[in-house]
Amino acid sequence: MADTERALADAIVGLLGQRTDGATICPSEAARRVAPESWRDLMPDARAAAARLVDEGTVEMTQRGIVVDPATARGPVRLRRAGGGASAWGPG
Questions:
Q1: Domains of the chain (ranges, CATH numbers)
Q2: Helix (H) / strand (E) containing 54
Q3: CA 68 to CA 77: how far, in whole Å?
Q4: Among residues 58, 46, 73, 77, which one has the least CA distance to residue 13?
Q5: Where are the beta strands (DSSP E) in 4-77?
Q6: 42, 65, 70, 74: which could join 51 in a potential S-S bond, CB 3.0 to 4.6 Å?
Q7: pLDDT in tens, 35-65
Q8: Highest taxon of the source (predicted)?
């Protein structure tokens, strides 16, 4: 894992650690923590770091409160600690 992606993963875990169970963050919050002035440039890396954390079972990626697969999710997503709610992939 690249240094930037590791820093983003650490930021995601750190931010979620400051929230109550079930609370979510936007990947942009982690990007802003790592690079406040150029966070937009880090968004692809932030989503990649989030996807790796999903693969590790550390976090869940959601859209409209439903857990989604990072490989197929398009558009805005939220992140929460694993086990924070509905665990089915997508609606259906």
A1: 3-81 (1.10.10.10)
A2: helix 43-56
A3: 9
A4: 58
A5: 59-63, 66-67
A6: 70
A7: 999 999 999 999 999 999 999 999 999 999 9
A8: Bacteria
